Amino acid sequence: PKKEDENWKFRTFIKGYENTEKLDSIVHRLNNEISSKIDCTTCANCCKEIHPTFTQKDITKIANHFEVTPSQFIDQYLVTDVFGDDFFPNESPCPFLKNNTCSIYDVQPDSCRSYPHLHKDDFAYRMMGLIANYEVCPIIFNVFERLKKELRKVRA
Predict the structure, then answer these.
(1) Which of 77, 110, 128, 143 gets the most CB atoms within 10 Å of its CB?
(2) Do 85 and 123 belong together in one domain?
(3) In the prediction, which pLDDT does 41 show?
(4) What is the dihedral of CA 30, 141, 130, 139, to 10 degrees?
(5) Same domain flag for 120 and 110
(6) Is it the case that residue 151 has pLDDT exceeding 80?
(7) How many domains would you assign to the chain?
């Protein structure tokens, strides 16, 4: 709870941070430093705990990989959200996780390929999702903690 409270306070601080380009630059640098030292295959928490979105493009690409129709792929592996707009794996951990690695890595969904999304701009506007994944992903955890320290130095 203490870290959770701290993270929500940090979110409030980040929301008020005026130089978003500088913030993104710091996050990108930290992400590059930290992600280069972490082997995701020793963790795979994202595949075990998060349900990535599969776009129609992803579905077509992966269905082709399995030599099935997109409808067959959806029926076998995916469910939709309550609005029927987005597709997610029908089980957890992800049905494509084998021995802590992605068995469809070459054709994995864009949302998986992009995770943990720290290379993207607009960090300040994605804080809710990042806080939700703070305990899931060691990269997010370490970037957050380093960012807190760096921004404290700037404010001091």
Answers:
(1) 143
(2) no
(3) 85
(4) 60
(5) no
(6) yes
(7) 2
Q: Name the burial class of residue 83, with classes exposed (0-12), middle (13-18) and buried (19+) by CB atoms within 10 angstroms of its CB.
A: exposed
As to burial, measured by CB atoms within 10 angstroms (0-12 exposed, 13-18 middle, 19+ buried), residue 115 is buried
Question: Taking the complete model, does pTM exceed 0.70, yes or no?
Answer: yes
Tens of pLDDT, residue by residue over 7-27, are 999 999 999 998 999 999 999
Rounded distance between C-alpha atoms, residue 47 and residue 40, angstroms = 10
Contacts within 8 Å (CB) and 24+ apart, 131-138: 131/7, 131/8, 131/11, 133/46, 133/50, 134/3, 134/7, 136/45, 136/46, 136/49, 136/50, 137/43, 137/45, 137/46, 138/38, 138/43, 138/45
